[in-house]
Specification:
39% helix; mainly alpha; 3 helices; 74 residues
């Protein structure tokens, strides 16, 4: 005998949404390992359009900061 699962219909879900082939928890392990997402403020996002441009700017900043630390008198 096959069990029938009755699913409550969410009023916000459209009929076009089909999750019948979805997998529950597919990305749960990856999510649990942590994420490195950083949200940019809108004014900063206007200047940096992708992650590579942000990374490049931060690398330059780190390089400058390290040079400044080396020149600090003891």
């Amino acid at each position: 005998m096959k069990k029938t699962v009755r699913i409550r219909r969410d009023p916000d879900m459209l009929d076009e949404y089909d999750f019948s082939k979805g997998m529950r928890g597919k990305y749960a392990k990856r999510y649990a390992e942590g994420t490195n997402i950083v949200v940019l403020s809108p004014d900063v996002a206007e200047v940096f359009h992708d992650s590579e441009s942000v990374n490049e700017a931060l690398r330059v900043l780190v390089k400058v900061a390290r040079q400044k630390v080396k020149h600090v008198p003891a």
